[in-house]
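Reopening this one. Same input as before:
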Amino acid sequence: MEKLIRFALDYVSYVVKGGAKFYAWMAGLGILIAIWGYSFYIQATEGLAVTGLTDQVSDGLYLGNVMFLVGVAAAAVTVVFPAYAYQHKALHEVAVLGEMVAIAAVTLCNLFVLSHMGRPDRLWHMLPVIGIYNIPNSLITFDVLVLTGYLLLNLVCGFYFLYTKYTGDRINRVFYMPLIYISIVWALSIHSVTALFINTMPARPFWNSPVMPIHFISTAFAAGPGLIILIFLLVRKNTKLWIKDEAINLLSTIMTYCLGIALFLNLSEIATHLYFPTEHTLGLEYLMFGVNGLTALVPWFWASSAANIIAFVMLLIPRVRKNYRLLPVACVLAFAGIWVQKGIGLLVPGFTPSPIGEFTNYMPTLIEVLVTLGNWAIGAAMLTVLLKGAIGILLGEVKYATAPWEVRGNVVPFYRATPKPTTKLPWAPSGDPARYEASKPSSGSRTRRRRRDALA
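Same output, byte for byte:
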């Protein structure tokens, strides 16, 4: 228990310290979170009437983000699976960072589900054991259940790994590896359940497609690695942790294949529905061209399609894919394009037209936009804290010491001693902290040192 308490104290004390850029970043997120608190209060007191949702379009920006972020959470498997199943050394060194991304993404998913409820009393139907689960009639409760299970798996795996790294103990593979493989299978299941959440509705032909789970997983493994690549490049630039090129190159390759599969499925869907149009193709026509003058989603569809195609073409070129100045551009384009495609570009056309033939434009209100930005700010702040602490442990800057003056790996705990590297003089008696002095690297070449000694 003492080690666990020290782990928590060292982790927190390391995370709260940083430079001007870190504090500016967290302050900006704090402002968005404060605005989110006020906006969420208005929505919780007045209900979903303050949003743009209607009886015809009952799912909008909130659940659109859930559909997208479940894929981001599942995409952590693109780091964990090669690291442990194929012993990919470069990814194995940073696999825990992928688990931190999954933790933040799943938490963000649950935040958006909470925002979509409208009233706090509806939480009664989301709490297992003590609440009333409406399963199987309401698949969203089952979706939240599997998401929470995936969150717990990543919390246990990620922080157990960090704890053993912190204490210097060996990982208990009998305990750890089964959890890793369960989390890999669970990652695929959470996105399959999310796809079943909408594609099991025969009254909504736009969603009622057997390839929907495959399409969800392919887009997840395109957008998720894109975000992880951006995070890895930022970590390389702003911290001492060096993530090898092999790790980034493998993720970009996975992203290329999966984005190509997603585009192929999109084109197949368009060709199937529009070659011989029926009343079941009205949702797709509304999305692509507009119907009866309702064209709110048309610019979003064509912009997201262009972004995905440009990103795919860039990733197909090896020189561009391995150019770490151009690769972020492709990642941002794919991430944004899939966010639109799996968000409002998927949900709203499914509700249009309604079963009785009504066409309704959906436009998010200011409250929806502010709550959405606040949710993303909470997720970004959480991800920053998780990654910063994990990087500190991976670098050895946060380590367990049995005494305030004990040095392990030439690094001392952040809150108990000087941050300067220390060495023990060979003549110092054992256990005497007063005889520890800062090590000084030698300066100059061997020839210059010899000349200086000769002149002396």
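So the earlier flakiness isn't reproducible anymore. For the record, Residues 2-395 form a domain with the Formate dehydrogenase/DMSO reductase fold fold (CATH 1.20.1630.10).
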